[in-house]
């Protein structure tokens, strides 16, 4: 976007999707003949908030609500740290050249919440199924051991009883 006085502004990514607690970069690049003043505002359903204003090479004025969460860059970009749901909305940048010309840009930021309840449910279900599987494997092992003992005992009794019958038959004759 170029204004008649020689200020130009390029918005690298006009739409940003992020999740809660991420850091996001609102990337722009401006150029102008003189010294520029850069101002970022956030507009959402909660209202309009001035985030930061600075003059290239001079002061940086960060709003109280954004102190410790905003990093400014010489090209006009800002980085927001640890975003929350309230950070969703429109971000407007105004670059004003000392001769009075302006350039404007807009970035739309969507913030999504990761629903840990769903992940928690999946984790609990997985743990439950793993426990049931372990119990079934142990039960099958016990059944197998019992079957082998039963077969051993039955085979031992069977061989003992047939031996007695053979001996008895021999004696009777």
From TrEMBL:
Keyword flag DNA damage: no
Ranges annotated as spanning the membrane: 119-142
GO terms, biological process: filopodium assembly; positive regulation of excitatory synapse assembly
SUPFAM superfamilies: Immunoglobulin
UniProt KW keywords: Glycoprotein, Membrane, Signal, Transmembrane, Transmembrane helix
Recorded superkingdom: Eukaryota
Localization: Membrane
Ranges where the Immunoglobulin domain occurs: 13-112
GO cellular component, one term: dendrite
Coarse class of the protein's main subcellular location: membrane
PANTHER family hit by this protein: SIGNALING LYMPHOCYTIC ACTIVATION MOLECULE, V-SET AND TRANSMEMBRANE DOMAIN-CONTAINING PROTEIN 5
Name of this chain's protein: VSTM5 protein
Native species: Rhinopomastus cyanomelas (Common scimitarbill)
Gene this protein is translated from: Vstm5
